[in-house]
Amino acid sequence: MIRARVLILPKRTVFDPQGEAVRHALGHFGLAAVDRVRVGKEIEIEIPDGGDPTEIRSRLETIARDFLANPVVEEFELHIEGLP
Amino acid sequence: MRWGVVVFPGSNCDRDCLFVLQQVLGREAIAIWHDERNLPPVDAVVLPGGFSYGDYLRSGAIAALSPIMAAVGRAARSGLPVLGICNGFQILCEAGLLPGALLTNADALFHCHPVHLRVESNCCLFTRGFASGEVVQMPIAHGQGRYYADPSTLDRLERSGSILFRYCDVHGERTREANPNGSVANIAGICNEEGNVVGLMPHPERACETLLASTDGLRLFHSLGSTPPEVEPGATYAGSAVR
User: Quick one: closest CA in B to A15, which residue?
Assistant: First the structure.
């Protein structure tokens, strides 16, 4: 099986209120001095084996860049396992 | 003049828009399902507010890929007037028909209350019924309405006169306190450089009858008609008697 993982985080230049709320909460665990927390998402895509590896990679890159992440406000990393 | 109101799964202001257009303004207006591949003959399109596709992934992201949006995009690039309200604004940004993005409110709260807006430009199809610099009132109802654009995009918006509405206080002052969601430069609504595609977070369709405290929203819909707006305080409108 081919497994793609897309890790998406808000850009550092964009204020992340969810990350900020989590950062505040970290004080409860005794970790008071935290510079920054960013909350994003990870999306997992499973694809059956077979097909043209170059084309699959290219399509996944397009999906990650044009749909799963919004490049205006987010950065992403695409990791693909199981692709020959 | 015939309006089309697009209905996505999760839209919840589509009926309000149809009511205003049909009953309050007395115009012809039809609902258009998101699955349509072509637009029926209409003179303007509204993308209404709501939570299309449950706001999954990002607000408006999945709706931007629906079949009707390809048709709306083609028509918009040919000059068709398109108005995106709230979730409709988010969809227009996600579809690339307007620049920037709408993010979670800076205080992470859902804001549902009336706001004051300063009309920054009345050069656009949808704002010509207002005076530039005028202060109007409409409600907002959103959790993700913080407009963001990078500095160069923001500069382009400013220079091209594409900023239509800014959050302000009752006197028209652009203050931090009057900005409900942390939008950059207090931006509440913008248009594209051609002026035919407009997006705003406030809900003009909820400010169209005296019963609802403000009729300023009606002037936005009225701007796109053949006649100039005739809005008098306390006036009743065609169709009001229906209730």
Answer: B106
Q: What percent of chain A has pLDDT over 70?
A: 100
Q: Are B219 and B231 in contact (CB under 8 A)?
A: yes
Q: Helices (DSSP H) in B78-116: which residue ranges?
A: 87-94
Which conformational region is residue B195 in: left (phi greater than 0), alpha (psi within -120 to 50 degrees), or beta?
left
Residue A8 included in any domain: yes
Residues A34, A23 contacting (CB under 8 angstroms): yes
Nearest to A17 among B61, B99, B107 (CB): B107
Which pLDDT score, from 0 to 100, does residue A3 have? 97
* A32 found inside a domain: no
Helix (H) or strand (E) holding A24: helix A17-25
Residue A28 lies in a domain: no
Check pLDDT > 50 for residue B235. Answer: no
Residues of A within 8 A of B108 (CB-CB) are 17-18, 21
pLDDT (tens digit per residue) in B24-55? 999 999 999 999 999 999 999 999 999 999 99
The ipTM value here is 0.90
**Contact between residue B192 and residue B96 where contact means Cβ atoms under 8 Å apart:** no
Whether B94 and A14 lie within 8 Å, measured CB to CB: no
Domains and CATH numbers, chain B: 2-242 (3.40.50.880)
Residue contact A18–B107, C-beta within 8 A: no
Q: Is the pLDDT of residue B65 over 70?
A: yes
CB contact under 8 A, B105 and A73: no
**Total number of domains in chain A:** 1
Chain segment A2-36, per-residue pLDDT in tens: 999 999 999 999 999 999 999 999 988 988 789 99
Please judge whether A17 and B65 are an interchain contact, meaning their C-beta atoms are less than 8 angstroms apart. Answer: no
Q: Does A32 touch chain B (CB under 8 A)?
A: no
Residue A65 lies in a domain: yes
Domain assignment of residue A54, given as a range: 2-14+40-81
